Amino acid sequence: MSTGWAASPSELLMKAATRAAGRRRSTVRRRLTLIVGLALLGLAIAAITLAPVLVSQGPNTIDALNPLAPPLTPGHLLGTDQFGRDVLSRILYGGRIDLAIAFGATSVTLVSGTLIGLVAGYLGGRWDSVLMRIVDLFFAFPFLVLVIAIIAMLGPSIFNMFVAIWITSWVAYARIMRAQTVVAKRQQYVLAARALGYGRLRVMFRHILPNTASAVIVFSMVDAIGNIILAASLGFLGLGAQPPSPEWGTMISDGQNYILSAWWLATIPGLAIVFVGIAFSLIGDGLADLLRPGDR
Amino acid sequence: MAPLLTVRDLRSYLATGQGVVRAVDGVSFTLGEAEILGIVGESGSGKSVTCRTIVGLMPSGITHISGEVIYHPHGDGSILSASQSQLQSLRGSQLAMIFQDPMTALNPVLNVGDQVIEAVQAHARLSGGQARTRAVSLLRRVGIPAPEQRMRDYPFQFSGGMLQRALIAIALASSPRLLLADEPTTSLDVIIQDQILSLLLDLQQDTGMSMILVSHDLAVISEVCDRILVMYAGQVVEEGPAADIITAPRHPYTRALLDAVPQGEQRGQLRSITGSPPSLIDVPGGCRFAPRCGLAVDECWSWETELIEIGGPGRLARCWRHDEVERSPEWQASDSA
């Protein structure tokens, strides 16, 4: 038996083992965040893919006999809007647009911003100055104003919204990636790779990129939510998807006129955004933990 | 002995916020085929910068390099003025370098095997299978047990000594003729140090490559090297065959370094060198070691001493009182101070 201040070796070992078990549990819990996030996102993707199976009414089909039916009305699980269009159907079909924005807009900016940041950070010098001044220029403008200006020039449509996002939001990735690259290129393994006569491209893509990509990947999850909300905001402002397209932001915008009499019109698309947002942010958290150096 | 590498008046100056650091300030030496040259000196004496400058690894925008580095198999032109692509094909295939800290010199996100295979394929057209076979035999050659299994491991699953072995395997992947080893044993414990050194020596004898071994540890250097270069404050202060340097130092700094090495049976007090090396930003005129030298007289403070040839070719010391270094009473007197 141990006295109060000097634990026996076996007791110390037991404590260490318990701590280790606790750590293992916390690893599982961290993975859990990622798994739950992926499950929620998978659910959302399954739902929008299977939309034709899940709902019988098309998103723009009008049930003229049942306008403004509240949720749980037979045949209209989430009710109908002022024209008698089924809200559930619109949510599912609209999700296709919003998730396409989340993936389409985000992946393009993720890749382009990462490449630009990598080049600027690794090559340094003139490349760095020119590219980073361009980034500064973009940051100096209020983001939404810039997006609205681009859409105003190109004309409001979903594709032009993509273009506006591509033009404006790579800068954040470039800045994150550049900072990571500048740190990484001073690391000894990069010096060692150069000492072996590896070319610039090999050093950048095989040695620096895998070590620095985690920050931008995690950020892209946050950015994906941001892009859905941006798409919804633009839809709300009438600059994104155009009616009768069932994009969620446009639905909220339409529904606000009925907010007092038919709350579900604006609330349900809002909840859909929240649902997808939570999924992405859980995935982001999970990835951040998973990719944190030293935890593998 | 045919020369393999000739370095002439190499200078490597770095621009920093505080001023220009004269990290390497006029270093010259010749390295023969199959020769092992040791470079010793304190931290900050310019050893590593010399190596990195030779292989062209100094950060470009902020470094000013002058002098000549002639790699004889590549012709009589200085490789400092070679194009990026020429230098790239030299590095790895002809000149290889291993680094001080094996824990950080491998890419943490790639497994060790892939990194060895990558090095094997970098300068030779080999199929995947051939490269893998060569990688396995390299890893076995440097003494990694069960290389086929260990290849799947990531660097963090290797111990320091094993990592240094893997790094040596990577450096030797395309049979270089010159290996620059920048403090390869500094971060390892003494037993592993010994193993790594004998491995390097063994490999050198097998392949007949030349080697530059950088260390701040005279014991390490004297065990392995044919010739020694002692550096202080960016300059070579003494050069000569290893045995001569160890037994009969002719520069006060070398002498002081030797005095600081514990001697097996003698249990005397270890003598440290008083003071600290000068800043390399505002280098004072005169002998750079004068402020810490027991032999310094007034002239030392004003004259910049040249490397003087003493007792034969290839035996140089940057001290005009080199005759008095060995057993001078003045030196002894300075110790008690």
Q: What does this entry look like structurally?
A:
The complex is a heterodimer of chains A (296) and B (337). Chain A has 296 residues and is an all-alpha fold. Chain A is 74% helix and 0% strand. The model of chain A has no long low-confidence stretch (mean pLDDT 86). By secondary structure, chain B is α/β, with parallel strands linked by helices. Chain B folds into 2 domains: 256 residues, 3-Layer(aba) Sandwich (Rossmann fold); 66 residues, no CATH class. Chains A and B meet through helix 7 and helix 8 of A and helix 2, helix 3 and helix 6 of B.
Structural descriptors:
heterodimer; A: 296 residues; mainly alpha; MetI-like fold; 10 helices; 0% strand; B: 337 residues; alpha/beta; Rossmann fold; 2 domains; 8-stranded mixed sheet; 3-stranded antiparallel sheet; 32% helix; 22% strand; disordered C terminus
Gist?
The complex is a heterodimer of chains A (296) and B (337). With 296 residues, chain A is mainly alpha-helical.
Give the distance, in angstroms, between the N- and C-terminal Cα atoms of chain B: 45 Å
> CATH topology of the largest domain in chain B, what is it called?
Rossmann fold
Q: Mind describing the biggest β-sheet of chain B?
A: 8 strands, mixed
How many β-strands of chain A, per DSSP?
Answer: 0
CATH structural fold name of chain A: MetI-like fold
Cα distance spanning the termini of chain A: 37 Å
Q: What proportion strand of chain A?
A: under 5%
